[in-house]
Amino acid sequence: MRAEGRQTVRRILCVFPRYTSSFGTFEYSYPLTDGVQAFMPPQGLLLIAAYMPENWEVRFIDENIRAATPNDFLWAEAVLVSGMHIQRTQMNDICYRAHSYDLPVAIGGPSVSSCPDYYPAFDYLHIGELGDATDQLIDILEKDTSRPDRQVVLKTTDRLDMTRFPIPAYELADIPRYFLGSIQYSSGCPYQCEFCDIPGLYGRNPRLKSPEQITAELDKLLECGIMGSVYFVDDNFIGNRKAALDLLPHLVEWQKRTGFVLRLSCEATLNIAKRPEILALMRDAWFGTIFCGIETPDPVALKAMKKDHNMMVPIMEAIETLNSFGMEVVSGIILGLDTDRPETGQHLLEFVEASQIPLLTINLLQALPQTPLWDRLKKEGRLNEDEGRDSNVDFLLPYDDVVKSWRRAMGSAYVPEKLLERFEYQIRHTYPNRIKPPIGAMLTWKSIRLGLVMLRNIFWKVGVLGDYKRAFWKFAFRRLARGEIEYLISGIMVAHHLINFARDASGGQTNASYYSLKLQDAAVPAE
């Protein structure tokens, strides 16, 4: 429930920091769209914006779209910031800019909740999720918006039940400027993978919104102009399998009511392959993509990282099962594990070839605070604090060899011909297993116009000006001949970013770990 109105009216500026370029920013795809400038609207900060007292004035700025201006800071009485470790430098920069206008700045979210010491300049640290600490912050700002003499730390001890969460303030964001929509159903994950900080931050017993909340949020996203796809940002969509089974029929009915205007995607553990009743409902609800943290095809490594649940079904069999329900798999992969050998990089490329997964977020191992991995490596004296490195882990293999292996893997996995062949496989073997929504409901004038704009941009910027034209036209002519225009657009939108980002990666122009502070000047510029 939204915080009640207060006698004093305040002006609150919510600023979301830029991301450093990575797989997940997709900025190379934006010129092929009709004005997209950022990846997904941030759930956390928009939730806080919606929770502010009803009579307070709230503005939201995503610096992936535009930077906060002097006029924005002059308007505000207080500034709120949130983000992840990868945005640490940018969040501190927002704080310094706000302080130049003598504004109090509060920071919340996963990064500060895990590492408060990363943010010594902020006036208020909001540790934990939405709850009593949020109410305390509102009480403080209502009484006084001058900067405190020393940093104030507010810790949530009584979290607000997620069934009482307001709808995130999507209306404050420029939703059509985002590549994907975002929505959150649950918080927390029952598993304890060694490298993951989710159980430490949000608990092992997933907390849930109601199905009615989710359909209302989807309605709001549509109202605010989202088109294409919406991503469930839950840490694990099947963290509570019974809840997922309760939610999915509501999503099926929502899709039927709205005409299947949005394709859905999510993150889940690979053992979802053991639950055909969930997969069948996901197919009916038009889930098209599922991100699975496969991490490594090596069973010895999976056991060592306490990810045994990835072995409940043989990995290749699990991928084939998901494909049989029409879901394209996106995979997380980690290099630099203690179990890696000199030939691990080559084995990874063989796995890419065998699995036919188009998009794999290949990343160097990074130890995050509040994880078992951090605790173990600290005890072993293997945490490296040199911020000029790609990873804070002292690998068992030579560091330079591991980074070179990552660069070779990136350079090989995303060669245009190989990547587009993997999309070709998905088009032939996975996409035909999807339901076929009613065409009339989807072919609105707005969607037709958008498709024509993207086709024009793709043909010109990739097919004429691009430097992998031969591979592109081979892929494009097949789609055109078969009337697969949607697959042409969606495939190239993703492939174009991966090809260009992988070139940067293999050439040493981007980080091998997306949590590293190295190369922060490669952050996506706000326009």
From TrEMBL:
Q: What is the lineage of its organism?
A: Bacteria, Pseudomonadati, Pseudomonadota, Alphaproteobacteria, Hyphomicrobiales
Name what cofactor the protein needs: [4Fe-4S] cluster
Domain Radical SAM core: from-to ranges: 173-408
Task: Please give the name of this protein.
Answer: B12-binding domain-containing radical SAM protein
Q: Does the keyword Iron-sulfur apply?
A: yes
Q: Which PROSITE patterns match?
A: RADICAL_SAM
**UniProt xrefs under SUPFAM superfamilies:** Radical SAM enzymes
Its keywords, alphabetically, are: Iron, Iron-sulfur, Metal-binding, S-adenosyl-L-methionine
Q: Tell me the GO molecular function terms.
A: 4 iron, 4 sulfur cluster binding; catalytic activity; metal ion binding
**GO CC terms of this entry:** cytosol
